[in-house]
Every structure is written in structure tokens, then in C-alpha cells.
Design goal:
By secondary structure, the chain is an alpha/beta fold. Helices cover 43% and strands 14% of the residues. Strand 7 and strand 8 form a beta hairpin. Bound molecules: 3-hydroxy-3-methylglutaryl-coenzyme A (HMG) and magnesium ion (MG).
Length: 297
């Protein structure tokens, strides 16, 4: 079995840190992640700079980015303005990001659940016409801080509409990190019942309640093979205050190494990068694996 790690630290991680890193530090981070063996690294977002000031340097970042052989550097793009900016920079992979709930659609995109599709449809159409690969996220897959529990059918309905636009993969976001393995199973079953199997799905867990790794293992056992994670477990979501960082890439790699699952990632080199990054961010990595291995390094 092989698992593809979709690294989101430079985007999902850095978008929610109090410290905005200088562009050359971001470039070094992405270069080091690629050296550690990660082959898909979400680099930044082409969103409104006032909404996410930490990533306002997207153009400058991509201009000088060192690119490793075979590596992809997707970026978030919500609308046509974002797509124009991404195309100008020669981006080859983008991700749109939808919400399963009205409250988060309003807060994160200034749209309703329905009207988010009016914004995404021309983005995906033009991106595909330009030969780009388009991934989609759906946020608030299990619960939403304003609306409470979210029914699997609600997530499937939004997810299907995102895939039907022409996206190659749907990443299921537990934005506030409240899901548990039972929820994950129920959601994957609901997708399967609607004809969307695990080969079209990725999982994106935040670790607020310490469930991210258990949820990931549940998804792997249900056939999902693409897992989002962030080096050192940094990050969250600026428009969902209760969100903590993503599943730490090191925690994921430690588990997969133990299971004999191939990832192509050198764990020690990754830990060294997260320790270096923690120094730049001025706070220790929340990853247990980083903390444990740091004592041996
Ligand atoms: P809006 O205010 O409705 O935008 O925001 P608008 O279309 O009305 O435009 C207003 C102004 O913004 C215009 O400028 C546009 O040109 C400009 P003006 O004419 O007034 O001078 N503008 C832009 N400028 C630069 N880049 C752009 C852009 N778009 C418009 N792309 C918008 C709508 C989508 C832009 C806004 O809501 C936004 O930027 N939202 C992004 C929020 C965000 O990045 N959230 C974090 C990522 S999502 C996440 O973390 C969850 C995830 O990890 C999965 C999970 O965990 O669940 C993916
Ligand atoms: Mg996220």
C-alpha cells in the first residue's frame, strides 16, 4: 500500500500563525519539505490579502520558489481574480474550497452555500481549459462552531457538486477537529452510497481534540490513500477560531512507517525542519512525534 501525503503546512499552517514569516523563510521551508521527500506541497493562497495577510506575498513566493523534481505546488484559489493571479505565475495545480454550512460559507467566502458554486464554476472551467489540475475542499464536514453537527448528506451534496465541476479529488475537511472515527466511517459510507468511492477522496483533519490520527487510520482502512497533513502540526483556520493545527505530518509518517506503508518521506529530516520552523514561529511544535524525536537529535 502507498499513501500520498498532501502537505499543507506552508498554506494551512502559516495562514493561522501570529507570526508572518519573511518570504525567503517560506521558500526555505518549502525547499526543505521537498528535500524531506514530500512531493505535493500546498504553497500559498491567491485569496484577498486583507482576508489572509500571512499569505499576501503569494506572487513573490512563487517567483523565487526552488522546485524539486516531480514535485507539485498547488495553491488555493477561490475566484476568478485569484485564478488570474495564479495563471500569471504559471501555477499548474489549484484547489478551490467550499463550505458544507451556510455560516462558514458566509464567514470564509462571503457567499451562501449555493452562491459559492457561481464563484467556483468559472474558476474550474477556465483552469481546466488552461490544463491545470483542480482539487476541491469541503469544509465543516462533521460539525460547525455556529450550527453544531453537520449531517453526512449535507456534506455529500456539496461534495458532489464540487466534483461535478470537474475537480479530480475532494478533500474532506474537519475544519475544527471535532470528528471521531465513527463520524468518518459514516461520512465515507454516505459518499460511497452516492457513488463516490475512496479513490476520489482525501482526508483533511485538524487535531483540536487529538482525534486526527485515529480518524486518518479509519479513513485508510476504508480505502482512502491521500492524506493532508502539516509539518509540525502548525496552523488552523483564521475564519474558524476553534480550529487547531492540522494533523502533524510527522505523526502521520511515524504511524505509516510503523505500518510498513510507503510514503517516500524521511522522518528525521522532516523533524529537523519542524524544529527549525518552530524557532522561526517562536513556539514549539505541538506534534508529539516532533517532541519525542527532538530529544534524540
Ligand atoms: P469578497 O469581499 O466577496 O470579494 O470576498 P469581491 O469579489 O466582492 O471583491 C472585493 C474586492 O476584493 C475587489 O477589489 C476584488 O478585486 C478583490 P476592489 O475592486 O474592491 O478593489 N479581490 C481579490 N484580490 C486579490 N485576490 C483575490 C481577490 N478576490 C477579490 N482572489 C473572497 C470573497 C473569496 C475573495 C474572500 O472571501 C476571501 O479571500 N476569502 C478567503 C478566506 C480564506 O482564505 N480562508 C482560509 C482558507 S479555507 C481553509 O483554511 C479550510 C481548508 O483548510 C479545509 C478545512 O480545514 O476545512 C481549506
Ligand atoms: Mg484546513
Amino acid at each position: 500500500m502507498k499513501v500520498t501525503i498532501y502537505e499543507v503546512g506552508p498554506r494551512d499552517g502559516l495562514q493561522n500563525e501570529d507570526v508572518t514569516l519573511p518570504v525567503e523563510v517560506k521558500r526555505e521551508l518549502i525547499g526543505r519539505l521537498a528535500e524531506a521527500g514530500l512531493r505535493t506541497i500546498e504553497a500559498t493562497s491567491f485569496v484577498h490579502p486583507k482576508w489572509v495577510p500571512q499569505l499576501a506575498d503569494a506572487e513573490e513566493l512563487l517567483d523565487g520558489l526552488p522546485r524539486a523534481d516531480g514535485a507539485r505546488y498547488p495553491v488555493l484559489v477561490p475566484n476568478e481574480r485569484g485564478l488570474d493571479r495564479a495563471l500569471e505565475r504559471g501555477v499548474t495545480d489549484i484547489a478551490i474550497f467550499g463550505s458544507a454550512t451556510e455560516s462558514f460559507a458566509q464567514r470564509n467566502l462571503n457567499r451562501t452555500v449555493d452562491s459559492q458554486f457561481d464563484m467556483f464554476a468559472p474558476v474550474v472551467e477556465r483552469a481546466l481549459a488552461n490544463g491545470l489540475r483542480v482539487r476541491a475542499y469541503v469544509s465543516m464536514c462533521f460539525a460547525d462552531p455556529w450550527e453544531g453537527p453537520v449531517a453526512p448528506e449535507q456534506v455529500v451534496s456539496v461534495g458532489r457538486r464540487l466534483l461535478d465541476l470537474g475537480c479530480y479529488e475532494l478533500s474532506l475537511g474537519d475544519t475544527i477537529g471535532v470528528g471521531t472515527p465513527g463520524h468518518v466511517e459514516a461520512l465515507l459510507d454516505a459518499f460511497q452510497a452516492d457513488g463516490i468511492g475512496p479513490e476520489r477522496l482525501a482526508v483533511h483533519f485538524h487535531d483540536t481534540y487529538g482525534q486526527a490520527l485515529a480518524n486518518t487510520l479509519t479513513a485508510l482502512r476504508k480505502g482512502v490513500t491521500v492524506v493532508d497533513a502539516s509539518a509540525g502540526g502548525i496552523g488552523g483556520c483564521p475564519y474558524a477560531r476553534s480550529a487547531a493545527g492540522n494533523l502533524a505530518t510527522e505523526d502521520l509518517v511515524w504511524m505509516l512507517d510503523g505500518l510498513g506503508v510507503e510514503t517516500g518521506v524521511n522522518l528525521r529530516s522532516l523533524v529537523a525542519t519542524s524544529l527549525w520552523l518552530a524557532g522561526k514561529l517562536g513556539r514549539p511544535s505541538p506534534s508529539r512525534v516532533v517532541q519525542a524525536l527532538a530529544k534524540e537529535m
